[in-house]
Amino acid sequence: MDFSFGTEAEELRPRARAWLAQHLTGPYERAVGLGGPGSEHQEVATRRAWERELGRGGWIGTGWDLPAGTYGQQRLSLTGQVVWAEEYAALRAPGRVGHIGENLLAPTLIAYGTPEQQARHLPAIARGEELWCQGYSEPGAGSDLAAVRTTAVRDPADGLPRVTGQKIWTSLAHDADRCFVLARTEAGSRRHRGLSFLLVPMDQPGRIEVRPIRQMSGTAEFNEVFFDGAVATDVVGGEGNGWTVAMGLLALERGVSTLVQQIGFAAELERVVHAYATSAAPDPALRDELVRQWAELRTMRWNALRTLGTTGDPGAPSVAKLLWGRWHRRLGELAVAVRGAAATAGTGPWSPQAPYGAALDEEQRLFLFTRADTIYGGSDEIQRNIIAERVLGLPKEPR
């Protein structure tokens, strides 16, 4: 296959690089290289302001299936979006806090929402003004999303759904302005039936409580969210069609998003390789493992490029998740292995507020955070079931 991006996409590269270099100045310099999985607590206010800067430049929503400029956004091809992401990563621009709204909710609204819903929510996302979180998983419904028990009942007074229940592992809920929630709107329904995809404002004191979940790394970008009669302003895709909408949204977690993720992986791998190269006694076995990591990362990139823009393939997201989840977890193990015993000690002075009594460096956080890579976003076991049943046509396990 031809993996080159073509003239049009490559002509974008110097323009993207120049815009980033011009705007990553002043207050935004504080957030350069900060943010991202395991480090979402860093410079949140600065990164929120950076989202608005991206919106003013038209760099939010470049992949939306809408004419350019509909909401002030540029329109880039798939390869153009990858070029932008590569330049963004090369200059270590701040970790994005608007990913969920831009790359998950917005395309879902374009595909399933009404014109009124699109006009109500897309402009604020395109301007970088509103942040969203995802209310899918529950204590008893993690990878098995069809088991959700959160309910929503319409209030006779105004006809709006009132949401009651608990969501868990809700990324950035403590900073989000709104949440899209999968809830059961048909009493007595089971599994995939009777679910609806609801949009819920987070600013509802007394009706929504957000409790951070402290992770092994000491950070808390995940949360528990408790709904007690919280008002939902929109039902996307029609009542009872939530499963279709939810699955359509999950199918978006591939393609450009996967390639963007791999750019961050490459930077992490480079740091680990540097640590190995400068270690006092390099271990040939670890060198072989690092070579394997490099080769597998290249393979993942080629696979992502090969499937870029494909639709209707239920196995593509599962294959991608299986590949990167186990790869990233192994990288976390290598990050501490190359440093030997020194990796077990914290950095800086002892502090009772710091995790483990002392601050952690990037490699230590990488190791701790990647322990969850094969679980969150759909566990490896679930991904294998999807491939077996929906792609290979193997019989389902008896229930």
UniProtKB/TrEMBL annotation:
It comes from the Bacteria. GO terms for cellular component: plasma membrane. Keywords: FAD, Flavoprotein, Oxidoreductase. InterPro entries: Acyl-CoA_Oxase/DH_mid-dom (IPR006091), Acyl-CoA_Oxase/DH_mid-dom_sf (IPR046373), AcylCo_DH-like_C (IPR036250), AcylCo_DH/oxidase_C (IPR009075), AcylCoA_DH/ox_N (IPR013786), AcylCoA_DH/ox_N_sf (IPR037069), AcylCoA_DH/oxidase_NM_dom_sf (IPR009100), Mycobact_Acyl-CoA_DH (IPR052161). One of its GO terms (molecular function) is acryloyl-CoA reductase (NADH) activity. Coiled coil: none annotated. The keyword Plastid does not apply. Its cofactor is FAD. Its EC number is 1.3.1.95. Pfam families: Acyl-CoA_dh_1 (PF00441), Acyl-CoA_dh_M (PF02770), Acyl-CoA_dh_N (PF02771). Belongs to the acyl-CoA dehydrogenase family. This is Acryloyl-CoA reductase (NADH).
